[in-house]
Each structure stands twice: as C-alpha cells, then as structure tokens.
Design goal:
Elements lengths: L1 E5 L7 E7 L13 H7 L4 E10 L4 E8 L16 E4 L20 E4 L4 E4 L4 E8 L2 H10 L3
Antiparallel strand pairs: 1-8, 2-3, 2-8, 3-4, 4-6, 4-7, 5-6
Amino acid sequence: MRSSVYMNTLNPGDLFYANVVIDKADLTAHPGSSTARNINEGKPVPRICLVLYTDRSTTMQVTYVATHGYKAVLPPELDRTMWYPISPAPLENYDLPPLPPTNGTPQWVSLRYTHTISITWDPVEKRDESLLPSAVAAIRSKMRG
C-alpha cells in the first residue's frame, strides 16, 4: 500500500518513490527499454528509495531498493558486494546479516551510492512498510559511496 505524504515527514527507514540516477553497472533492464536508455544516458529514473538520513528541512540521504524484475535471486551479472538482500531474497554468498522482510518480495538495497535529495513541498508516494532503525544502521555501515 501507498500513501501520499510530504517529504519532511519521512523518517529513516521509510520507503518512498523518487527519481535517482542509477549506475550503469547496476543495469539489468532490457537493452531497448526506456529505463535502460535513461540509465545509460545518466538520467534519473523512478525507484523505491530508502531514507538513510533526513534533516527534515532541506535534504535527505537515500539509497534505492530494487527487485530486479521480481527475480528470486540477484542476477549473476551484478556485483553482490553492491547489494544488501532483504528477506526473502536469498542470503547465500553474502557476509551480511539478513534484513527483515518488508512485503514478502525479494528485494536488494543498493550499497553503491548515497543519493542526496532536496526536500520539497511536493507530496511523494510513501510505502506503508519500512525498515527498522537497526537495518538502516546496518545498511549505512556498508554503503560504498
């Protein structure tokens, strides 16, 4: 489920939809898709974002969450060290403790970059599920950039 909220009401652990630039190394979309074209051109694409930090007035730091086409396992062409699995995503070959499930769908949190987003007065679509503070702390400790 989703609800429309103002960005300054989001807390660390909240999941919401925003446009972010995805690194080409994280691309698994079909080569001819508009999403793949936008990623290859360095344009922002809509993604589920996880709030890592917010000052509630000017900026927040986020990373994005991916389902990789609702696959049960992380696609083999992706660097496993750049992803933190959310249960029920398989935890094999990871040196990370599992993150608790949010909605029963295998998902992975990108560890590649922290994105800084300006807080605006435009409403955003927030997902009803969120991650616990301990999970946010674990993710923040593993972020690469």
